[in-house]
Amino acid sequence: MAETVASRLSTTGTANALELRGVSRLFGALAALTDITMTVRPGERRAVLGSNGAGKTTLFNCITGDFGPSAGTIRLFGEDVTAFPPYERIRRGLRRTYQISLLFTGLSVIDNVYLACRGVSRGRFSLMRPRRGDPLLASARDLVDAVHLTHVRDTAVANLAYGQQRQLEIALALAGAPRFILFDEPAAGLSPTERRELVEILTGLPEHIGYMIIEHDMDVALRVADRVTMMHNGRIFKEGLPHEIEDDPEVQELYLGGAHGGH
C-alpha cells in the first residue's frame, strides 16, 4: 500500500522543509549561482522570481540533484541531501515539474496519474494490471479530481489542451504524498482563464504540502506565495512578503520597468 500522508508527516518533526547554505554552481568560469542561502518552512509556498538568466532553473536543478552544487549544502526536512541522487530526494518527498511537458501522450489522463502513483510505491516493478479495488487507482482518481480534470479522465493526453496538460503535470507531482514540490513556470503559455484555474489549483493544495514556484507572471506568483525571493545574476536580490516585493521600487525598476501596479 502507498505510504500515507500521515506517516510522512510523522517523520517531518519541526525541521525546515528546505535549507540552502552558501549554495553556488559554476559552469567553467561562469557562476550560475553564488552563495545562495535560503530557508523554507514546512508548508510554506515560496515564489522565486527574476529575469531570464537570473539562476532560477539552475537553483531548482541543484535542489533536485539534476546536478550538484559546486559549493554549499542542501538540507531537506533536516537531512543533508547535498550528495544524494534525484531518486533519493524523491523518496524523501521532493517532487518537481519542468518547463517542457513530460507526459505519456498516448495514454489517458488517469493512466498517466496511475503510473506516477505506481512509480513511487513499493509495487512499482510489478507487471500486474491494477485490480478494481487497487488503492493506487483510487489515489489516481483523487488526484485527477484535485487538478480539475475529472471530465477528461479517460481522454488521451495527446488530445488535451495545453493548459490541461499543465494541470496534469501538477497531478503527477502530487503522486505519492509529497512534502515539497518545485513548480517550474507552470503558467507559461496559459491563457488568462487557464491561469486563474492554475491559481485555484495551487491555492487549494493541502496545507501541509509546501512548494517553490518559478514564475514570470508576477500576478500569478504573488497570489500563490506566502513569501517571495527575487534573484538577479545568480544571487538573491530581495526577499519579502508578496506586497513588500510588489511595492519595492528597486524591484519595479529592475524587473518591471516601473510599470507594474495593482494585483
Automatic annotation (TrEMBL):
<dbReference type="GO" id="GO:0015808">
    <property type="term" value="P:L-alanine transport"/>
</dbReference>
<dbReference type="InterPro" id="IPR003439">
    <property type="entry name" value="ABC_transporter-like_ATP-bd"/>
</dbReference>
<dbReference type="GO" id="GO:0016887">
    <property type="term" value="F:ATP hydrolysis activity"/>
</dbReference>
<dbReference type="GO" id="GO:0015188">
    <property type="term" value="F:L-isoleucine transmembrane transporter activity"/>
</dbReference>
<dbReference type="GO" id="GO:1903805">
    <property type="term" value="P:L-valine import across plasma membrane"/>
</dbReference>
<dbReference type="GO" id="GO:0015192">
    <property type="term" value="F:L-phenylalanine transmembrane transporter activity"/>
</dbReference>
<dbReference type="Pfam" id="PF00005">
    <property type="entry name" value="ABC_tran"/>
</dbReference>
<feature type="domain" description="ABC transporter">
    <location>
        <begin position="18"/>
        <end position="258"/>
    </location>
</feature>
<dbReference type="GO" id="GO:0005304">
    <property type="term" value="F:L-valine transmembrane transporter activity"/>
</dbReference>
<protein>
    <submittedName>
        <fullName>ABC transporter ATP-binding protein</fullName>
    </submittedName>
</protein>
<dbReference type="GO" id="GO:0042941">
    <property type="term" value="P:D-alanine transmembrane transport"/>
</dbReference>
<keyword id="KW-0547">Nucleotide-binding</keyword>
<dbReference type="GO" id="GO:0005524">
    <property type="term" value="F:ATP binding"/>
</dbReference>
<dbReference type="GO" id="GO:0005886">
    <property type="term" value="C:plasma membrane"/>
</dbReference>
<dbReference type="GO" id="GO:1903806">
    <property type="term" value="P:L-isoleucine import across plasma membrane"/>
</dbReference>
<dbReference type="InterPro" id="IPR027417">
    <property type="entry name" value="P-loop_NTPase"/>
</dbReference>
<keyword id="KW-0813">Transport</keyword>
<keyword id="KW-0067">ATP-binding</keyword>
<dbReference type="InterPro" id="IPR051120">
    <property type="entry name" value="ABC_AA/LPS_Transport"/>
</dbReference>
<dbReference type="InterPro" id="IPR003593">
    <property type="entry name" value="AAA+_ATPase"/>
</dbReference>
